[in-house]
Amino acid sequence: MTVIDKIRLFIIECVDPMDLLQERSEATALEKICKAIGHEVAILRAFCEQDLVKYLDYISSIDGNYTAANHGRVPLCIHISAHGNASGISFGRDFLNWHRLFLALSPILKDMSQYNGEVLISISACGAGQQKLVDEIEAEIARYHVDSDSTNQHVEPPEYIFVTEGSQGKDVVYWDDATVSWTVFYHQISKLKAINDEGIHLILDDIEHATKTLLRSFKWDTKTQKYVVY
After folding, report:
1. Alpha carbons 40 and 221: distance in angstroms, whole number
2. Which of 160, 137, 164, 132 is nearest to 218 (CA)?
3. Fewest CB within 10 angstroms: 32, 40, 117, 161, which?
4. How is 2-35 classified by DSSP, letter by letter?
């Protein structure tokens, strides 16, 4: 259980060309509100798989030792916003299935030793409610436990993974519903004394009631070595 005040938020967004022309940007809206709340926010625009891989590797180099001692345990959240479906998410012409997204996330999952706070992942995309990223993480950890090769670098599962499930009773997520829902999410998470199941569940329930949009949380269970969905 991590005691929090604010969070550090990296938003990696890929909009399609029409979104860009018509100025539909979840990241831009989130940045303004989250900075007003007091979160530290940075936007990274990804237009292809190579961009995503580059940015995730860059984020993994973050060094928490630069921060003041009383801010060393601030949670860091990587928010990925893109178009998608049940099979994966799109970055320009590149479509990443969940296995390829897992591979792209490898630096975040395996090489965050210089950061002292908890790492969270949010995925805002149609179809993210059927994501298989948690399955990929669980399978990798299971392989690690039976693999005696010490060179196999251990995956550190994010404590929570948050995803969009659907809005307005459908299995798709509309841009405005997603933007409002994530804004409420990051606003309310700053009100928690600690990131825990009770607080997260209340936030997700409130978002569903207020916006008709369903966000899911996947919490890592150290006993079962699996994610528990809510």
Report:
1. 28
2. 160
3. 32
4. EE-S--EEEEEE---HHHHHTT--HHHHHHHHHH
Element (H, E) at 172: none
Question: What count of residues does the chain have?
Answer: 230
Q: Which two tokens stand for residue 158?
A: 């994010």
pTM for this one?
A: 0.92
- Name the nearest CA neighbour of 190 among 78, 64, 35: 35
Phi, psi of 152 (to 5 degrees): -75, 105
Distance between CA atoms of residues 95 and 14, nearest Å: 12
List beta partners, residue 97.
88
For residue 89, give Cα distances in angstroms to 122, 131, 217.
13, 10, 18
What is the SS3 assignment for 148? Answer: coil
Which single residue is written with the structure tokens 């090489």?
111
